[in-house]
Amino acid sequence: MANQQSNGGVIHIYQGYDPKRFPNPRDPAPDLVSPALNHLMMFGSRRRLTEEELARAIQLDPSQIAGLGPSLDGLIALLEERKRKILAKYEVATVRKAARSEYRTYGEQIKPPRKLREQFEQAFEEEQYRDFERLWYHIGDDSNRFAQRLVQLIDKLGNKYEVDELAAKYTFTGNTSLSIPEAIAIKAELRKLTNCSNN
User: Fold this and answer.
1) CB neighbours of residue 197 within 10 Å
2) Structurally, how many domains does the chain consist of?
3) Percent of the chain with pLDDT over 70
4) Has residue 65 been placed in a domain?
5) Using CA atoms, how far apart are residues 50 and 90, in angstroms rounded to an integer?
6) Is residue 10 included in any domain, yes or no?
7) How much of the chain, in percent, has pLDDT values that exceed 90?
8) Residue 118: how many CA atoms within 13 Å on its side-chain side?
9) Which comes out higher in pLDDT, residue 56 or 125?
10) Domain limits at 152?
């Protein structure tokens, strides 16, 4: 029994238990609802304030919130700095070659049906979504092996487009290479940074 009491004391000290500040757990819970209800019945109602009433009730002086957070110019400077660091860190020539190679390698392995071969080869060389989509609709069967491979080829063409657009839109000066998914993620981040700093 003595061991149990000493262990209990250790646990209480560890948990920061202070009997002067915390009420006894056997005491009845305080009544918080009755005073609030009495105050509501005497002074107010449950009606929500309109936007105009709320605006009149709360008046803020701009000097009260000055310096509360960074200024717009400061935020724009942070965004521009992040963008500058990204452009100074990475290079995109390698990932452009990788995206083109992935598209070409995958497309060259596809064996289209004889009647669609010419149409496929033209679409493959011209690298146009609409040509592949027409070809896919012409097949008309999602379970067709050629149709499935066509969808994957369209996905790889999309990656190539994304990487080419990244390289065309931004000037990278760094040395760190990117994978295709990383390049697409960087493109999305740069777009957000550009949009935020321009607004």
Assistant:
1) 15
2) 1
3) 81
4) no
5) 53
6) no
7) 40
8) 1
9) 125
10) 75-198
